[in-house]
């Protein structure tokens, strides 16, 4: 008799139950672990970082770099779900993720994430750039260890500092193209870095009860909704000139500057309306609106950067 | 000693999922091989040279 004979619920004579012994996960569960929606934003900003670099990159090499960055982002998503499994199970927004649902075990998520992380960094280093690979590895480390394991559970400034992880992809894209660093990718880093707090706090205003139940010290839980709305407004005001910085620094022309100032103005106006709004349904509606607009804001700014700095810039060169 | 050793018998659903995972892993490895092949063609002898 073997150890596993102790498992009951035999399905056939001479056989044992497979409960806990055989993975019940499907391919779609593993894809869900990779957080495809977050991955798409990461790939987009990395693509812009790669495209605006002042060097010609062969399309195959560019594709390889973006594929590695996408897989690295997926690895970070899977590892984040491994770290946050206890929190996810308590929150309505995340309770249906593969681990809380019991579709993927924490061990499987860890193995999957580590395999993808190692593979994406190694392939990016071997085929594209070791500097970009090192940055990708550091980004995954920062997101998992610094943000997920440490900051998220200890400070209401978690997403301010942790937001750096989401701001690194355009820098990685630039490094993949040039093998170095420049001012332009740092400006893109700053845009995403200062965009993250108003974006995420608008969402967390709507999910404050969830975060409180899971004992995650998000700003609305610790400091209250009024202070959160004040901080959202402050960051939106700071974001306005930073969003226009690539134009102010002379890297792109006035079209980008106009779009950045207009979009930043709308975002600041929405943040102001949220600031003066009372709690309740109106405040929730304005928070939802700001959250949705913030996604559009980042997409539009990077799309114009891509067109002006990447596509048109290359055609003019 | 004629007792047969115990064994795991998968349900049809588990077999289907295991097969799908195996195919996904095979496709991933295949894509990786093709990627290395194409990048080698593009970069030539200095395939591991960095910018």
Describe the 3D structure.
The complex is a heterodimer of chains A (317) and B (51). Chain A is 75% helix and 1% strand. Chain A is flat and about 55 Å long. In chain A, helix 1 (27-33) crosses helix 3 and helix 3 (59-83) packs parallel to helix 6. Chain A has helices spanning 27-33, 36-51, 59-83, 85-90, 106-127, 130-154, 158-162, 164-167, 169-178, 183-206, 208-213, 219-222, 225-248, 254-276, 281-316; one strand spanning 15-16. Chain A folds into two domains: 26-181, UbiA prenyltransferase (Tetracycline Repressor, domain 2); 182-307. Chain A is mainly alpha-helical. The longest helix of chain A is centred in the C-terminal third of the chain and has 36 residues, at 281-316. Residues 1-11 of chain A have low confidence and may be disordered. Chain B has one helix and one strand, in the order βα. Chain B has a domain at 15-42. With 51 residues, chain B is mainly alpha-helical. Chain B has one helix at residues 12-43; one strand at residues 7-8. Helices cover 63% and strands 4% of the residues of chain B. Classes of the chains: A mainly alpha (317), B mainly alpha (51).
């Amino acid at each position: 008799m073997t150890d596993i004979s102790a498992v009951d619920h035999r399905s056939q004579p001479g056989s044992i139950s497979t409960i806990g012994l055989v993975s019940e996960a499907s391919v779609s569960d593993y894809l869900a672990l990779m957080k495809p929606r977050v991955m798409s934003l990461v790939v987009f900003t990395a693509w812009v970082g790669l495209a605006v670099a002042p060097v010609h990159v062969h399309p195959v090499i560019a594709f390889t770099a973006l594929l590695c960055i996408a897989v690295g982002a997926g690895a970070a998503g899977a590892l984040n779900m491994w770290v946050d499994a206890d929190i996810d199970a308590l929150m309505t927004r995340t309770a249906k993720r593969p681990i809380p649902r019991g579709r993927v075990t924490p061990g499987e998520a860890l193995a999957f994430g580590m395999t993808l992380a190692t593979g994406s960094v190694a392939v990016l280093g071997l085929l594209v750039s070791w500097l970009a690979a090192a940055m990708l590895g550091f980004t995954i480390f920062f997101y998992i260890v610094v943000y997920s394991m440490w900051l998220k559970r200890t400070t209401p400034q978690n997403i301010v500092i942790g937001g750096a992880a989401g701001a690194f992809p355009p820098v990685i894209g630039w490094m993949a193209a040039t093998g170095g660093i420049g001012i332009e990718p740092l400006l893109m880093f700053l845009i995403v870095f200062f965009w993250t707090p108003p974006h995420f706090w608008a969402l967390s205003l709507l999910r404050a009860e969830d975060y409180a139940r899971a004992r995650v010290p998000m700003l609305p839980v610790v400091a209250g909704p009024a202070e959160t709305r004040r901080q959202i407004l402050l960051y939106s005001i700071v974001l306005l000139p930073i969003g226009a910085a690539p134009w102010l620094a002379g890297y792109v022309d006035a079209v980008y500057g106009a779009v950045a100032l207009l979009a930043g103005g709308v975002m600041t106006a929405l943040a102001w309306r949220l600031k003066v709004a009372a709690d309740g349904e109106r405040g929730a509606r304005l928070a939802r609106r700001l959250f949705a607009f913030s996604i559009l804001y980042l997409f539009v700014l990077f799309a114009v950067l891509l067109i002006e700095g990447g596509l048109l810039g290359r055609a003019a060169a | 000693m004629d007792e047969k050793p115990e064994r795991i018998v998968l349900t049809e659903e588990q077999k289907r999922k295991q097969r799908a995972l195996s195919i996904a892993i095979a496709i991933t490895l295949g894509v990786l091989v093709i990627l290395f092949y194409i990048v080698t063609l593009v970069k030539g002898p200095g395939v591991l040279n960095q910018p």
